[in-house]
Amino acid sequence: METVTLNNGVTMPILGLGVFQVPDPQVCEQAVLDAFNAGYRLIDTAEAYGNEESVGSAFAKSGLKRDEVFITSKIWVSNFGYERTKAAFERSLKRFGMDYLDLVLLHQSLSDYYGSWRALTDLYKEGKIRAIGVSNFYPERLADLCMNAEIKPMVNQIENHPYFQRGTDLEVAQHFGVQVEAWGPFAEGGRGIWQEPILTEIAVAHGKSMAQVILRWNIQRGVVVIPKSTHRERIEENIDVFDFQLTDDEKARIATLDTGHSTIIDHHDWHVAEALNQHRV
């Protein structure tokens, strides 16, 4: 497994399994076990997903050592603020059945995220978290936090796929030394991505699936990817992306697919901000 090195020196796998929208405990546990058996070592979840216990249970049954896996979770908006975030983290840690987490992210750039960031900073200093970061922070929010926080984020997890390629986000992240991680790398199946002619032609040329081409594209950009699947065959297919390279011409063709805006959730829409703030976990 290829890795990236975060700005604090911690190494992180460049590909992992995401378990968003996998609430069934048995299904989630089996998917994580299948991922471990296939060679995955990064698992990405969140308290809002309701499956931290399932991830922890799968790890306990895997036979792997704790330092062999990289576990990520996220603090939800309803638990933002210094004290609430520290309490939410301790609850998550208990659900995982672990002594520490490898990466904890603030799930949205809303509410009192500065208070929450101070909480993550203290937990990081205490050694309870190996790396801290954010999710869904657009360039201006990320730049502001980097300029004002005692410790800069190590990761920014954002929507990132061929239809929303986030060039400015990557530029800002590189400027501040923040690793970009892609959620929704397949655009959640939107805009007919599985019928996209450019991706189809490139896949045929390499004897690979379209999913493998999409993942390889982001990996070659230095972006960590966390594709979600609960099917063992897909999980195994998604990790089989380290034996080929996209050419400069192929990458240029994929670049033409960028729409410049989200195809999943518009964080600039005030209705979205309202809904995210109203959701409780």
Spatial shape: globular
Number of helices: 11
Instruction: Give the domain tally.
Output: 1
* Major pleated sheet: 8 strands, parallel
Helix percentage? 40-55%
Structure description:
The chain has about 280 residues and is of the alpha/beta class. It has a single domain (about 10-280), classed as TIM Barrel. About 40% of the residues lie in helices and about 15% in strands. The chain has helices at about 25-40, 50-60, 80-95, 115-125, 140-150, 165-175, 195-205, 210-220, 230-240, 250-255, 270-280; strands at about 5, 10-15, 15-20, 40-45, 70-75, 100-105, 130-135, 155-160, 180-185, 225. It has an eight-stranded parallel β-sheet. Strands 1-2 form a two-stranded antiparallel sheet. Helix 1 runs parallel beside helix 9, helix 5 (about 140-150) runs parallel beside helix 6 (about 165-175) and helix 7 packs across helix 8. The model has no long low-confidence stretch (mean pLDDT about 95). It holds the Pfam family Aldo_ket_red. Its EC number is 1.1.1.188. This is Methylglyoxal reductase (NADPH-dependent).
